[in-house]
Amino acid sequence: MMVIRAFRAINDLETCEKYAEGHARVLSAINIKVKSSERDWFCNPGVYGIIVESEDGTQVYGGAKIQIKTDDFPLPLEDAIGKLDPRIFDLVKQYQEKGTAEICGLWNSREIAGLGVGSSLLVRACVARVGVAISEKLNIDTLFALCASYTLPTAVKAGFLIETSVGENGEFPYPKDRYKAIVAIHKDLNNLTSADELERNAIVSLRQNPIQEKMEKGPKGEVYVKYDLTHI
Fold first, then answer.
1. Domain holding 221: CATH number?
2. pLDDT of residue 31
3. Each residue of 157-187: b (16+ CB within 10 Å) or e?
4. Long-range contacts of 112-118 (CB under 8 A, 24+ apart)
5. Is residue 158 scored above 70 in pLDDT?
6. How far apart are CA 142 and CA 79, in angstroms?
7. pLDDT tens digits, residue range 115-134?
């Protein structure tokens, strides 16, 4: 069994550290360092994390963060690509008034990547968690993501659309020239009309029942998952 649970950064520094260590190991293996792998987010009250771990909590398999945009904390994608295209600042500001956030720092280990469910379950959990956040009156109306080319299809299934007004039709050479990152945005978090039907149903199920257990099927295998998308 794997556990996918939500946490708030400022309330759970132990989980923050487990998340950061796992993320750093994955990035180190491919010789990459990015802003979202640093630890300044530990003290950001607008960061809510998702972590994938073993049932006993001793093994961490992946994670992602949801960071709410505030005047005090720019979104990680602003730091990442602002020097490449300053238009990203105006774009984020455009959505900030109604409330915007970013899925960032998404990573998974080989254990769940090998099942073909790593990024898909994390993106699903993040979008579902934002729905829970909306019900808790947190100010989130839109959701950004800076996707790698291999995670973009997963984001699109969850309802993200490529934002073509920045970069070259939304694309940037990041974090290194040989890689490609794509800016995407989710504009319908309430109704999920832009999401694939199967993905929409899965997200709605998690929103309505943020604590549940189910068998998840990937293209390479099955895994039993216990979800807890509430937070302390």
1. 3.40.630.30
2. 66
3. bbbbebbeebbeebbbebbeeeebbbbbbbe
4. 112/2, 112/52, 112/61, 112/62, 112/223, 114/220, 114/221, 115/218, 115/220, 115/221, 115/222, 115/223, 116/218, 116/219, 116/220, 116/221, 117/216, 117/217, 117/218, 117/221, 117/223, 118/52, 118/61, 118/62
5. yes
6. 19
7. 666 788 999 999 999 988 87
Q: How many domains does the chain have?
A: 1
**Is the pLDDT reported for residue 87 higher than 70?**
yes
11 phi/psi in degrees, rounded to 5: -100, -5
Q: State the pTM of this model.
A: 0.92
Q: pLDDT (tens digit, 9 = 90+) per residue, 21-51?
A: 999 888 877 666 665 557 889 999 999 999 9
Residue 66 belongs to domain spanning: 2-228
- Angle of helix 197-208 relative to helix 118-135, nearest 10 degrees, comes to 50
